Structure formats: C-alpha cells, structure tokens
Prior knowledge:
By secondary structure, the chain is of the alpha/beta class. It has a domain at 250-331. It has helices spanning 54-61, 79-82, 89-94, 112-122, 129-142, 159-171, 189-206, 217-223, 241-246, 251-258, 271-282, 284-287, and strands spanning 8-18, 27-38, 43-47, 69-74, 77-78, 95-98, 177-181, 209-214, 226-231, 234-240, 304-306, 314-315, 329-331. Strands 6-7-8-3-9-10-12-11-13 form a 9-stranded mixed beta sheet, with helices on both faces. Strands 2-1-4-5 form a 4-stranded antiparallel beta sheet. Helix 4 crosses helix 5 and helix 10 crosses helix 11 (271-282). The longest helix has 18 residues, at 189-206. The protein is globular, with a radius of gyration of 21 Å.
Amino acid sequence: MSPQTPVLSVRGLTKTFPIGGMFSRRHVRALGGVDLDIAPGEIVALVGESGSGKSTLARCLARLEQPSGGSFAFEGRDVLKAEPRRASRAYRSAVQMIFQDPFGSLNPVHRVSHFLERPLQLHDAVSGRDELERAKRRLMQKVDLPAELLHRYPHELSGGQRQRIAIARALAVNPRLILADEPTSMLDVSVRIGVLNLMRSLCEQQDISMLYITHDLASARYLADRIIVMFAGEFVEGGEAAALLAEPRHPYTRLLISAVPDPRRRGGFDPVERARLRHEVVQATSCAFHGRGETTCSAETAVFHRVSDAPEHWVRCGLYAPPSDAPGTALERPDTTQESPAA
C-alpha cells in the first residue's frame, strides 16, 4: 500500500432491508450510495440522529451485514470482490469493531481473561501459554487497567472498565481500522473523556485508523480529525472537525448544532431560526436530495459544493449553491480526503 492509498475507500455503498413479511416486495433504504475515504491514522467521526444509517454502514464494513450494492476497498483491495460471501480471518483481524453496549458485548459467564485469550488464539497471535499470559497483561496495560481484573467477571467491573476491556479485545489482533459504534454513549459523563483520550492515544501510537460513530457533536469535535454528517442514509456535509462545527452550511447540520446546549450562546438558539431549519429537514425529500425547482439538486445527480473559504469543507445542498460569481465549486462527489476533492 502506497502512502497515498486510503486504508478504507468506499464507493456507492447501498443497503436496503425488506419490510412487510415474507412475500412483500417493499424495502426500506438504509444507505443511499455513500462514498468515504479514511487515511492511515485518521479518525473520522460520522454523526447523525438515530436511524440515519450510521450503524448500518459500520456493520456493512465489518461484514456483519451484506451491502446491497457498491464496493469498498481495504488497503487497495476490493473486499466484496475478493471475499463475496464472508470475510476472511485476515480481514476480521485487520478491521475490528467496538460496540455501543459494554454491558451486552461481554458474555457474563466468562472472566475478563477469556475475552482477551479468544482473539489471540483464534488469530494465532501468540504461541505457548507463557506468551499468552504476557500478551494479556500487555493489553491490560495498554488500556490502563490492572492485570488483577483478568480474573474478574464483567458484572464486577464498572461501565468504563468494561468498555476498556472491549477496546483491549479489539487491539489483541493488531487491527489497522477500528469501527467504533457509539462507544461512550452508555457510559457516565465522568468516564467518557478517559475513554476518548484512550482511543485517541492508541490511534496515534499504533497508527490505527478509526471510524467513530456518534450522535454527540462535542465528542466528535474532541476526538476526530474530520466530521461527516449523515442524514437519511446520505452524507450531507463534511470537513475538518472544528471548521465544520464553527461554520455549518447544511440545514440539518445547523439543526443538530442548535440542539446542543451552549453556555456561550446568549438567550439560547433563535426559535424562529430553529423552526425554519426543522421545516427544511422535514422537507428533506425535496431539499437535501431531490429537485426543488429553483435549486440545483436533483434525484438523478447529487450536487456537492466545496465551501470556498475551507477547501476541505463540502456540503450537499442545493440551498447552498453559490452565486455564479462566487468562488464555491460544484463537485460530483464529496471531498473524502484531506488533500483534494474527487472529480
């Protein structure tokens, strides 16, 4: 893999689910053809409300769900073409997932030691009992937990400790990409920052890339290099984390930000403006993705605009279409890398 090759490159990925029983032909669309590149060592946050398709995307990339269409390459290798039916052991070793619920992701009948032994043995990461014991202790040290906890059961640990064990389990097979599906949403606020700091330091130390899925804009800004906003199975805005949250352009992004309490915002968010944004979001079938008469969006060709004052910042919205004499640029697809927009 060359230095320019993304760790993960997704193109036109779609996913639909059947609804209405065995003989029904109806389907609901969870992913509408998303494109995404993640660079080596980069942390990308995917934000959006429940039901927007974030977890479905992660499960497709983890090969827990089979995509309905599109493709994705891992380190330059077309995964669905090379492994059409199920993921290989090598892929599962390279791409690990951390689940949302630290209470449900650990089997209560096993001790902590079992959760670290299992991946080490399945992926032939160690040979011999002594090496296995040393490897488990190293993993506990990586996630800042004492080795004494190896002999405890999950119910004897706090939520933060359980999530650290889940992180240690993912690290056991030396992954190059971690899919973290809301890993802090079920933790107390007091322990979230510790888990976020741990994930950031591990990614930096081991050059691990991460897709961090969350509905928490504050944690996305704190942890991620880039933020991508997802709405109704589509990417609608993306860019460098701090810049995007400072100058959101899409109505849905602005609506998400308006719902976050901010002591610096005097008098709260303007209720009239919030009502207008909510109206635009409710009319999403004609605003975000389809023709709106006077705008340039259409159902056939998505229109992405590069925000002129931040080249890595793009927005998919006909409402943002810049005037003909403005320096904004229309794109066929979003700028999914930090260097230059895809043509």
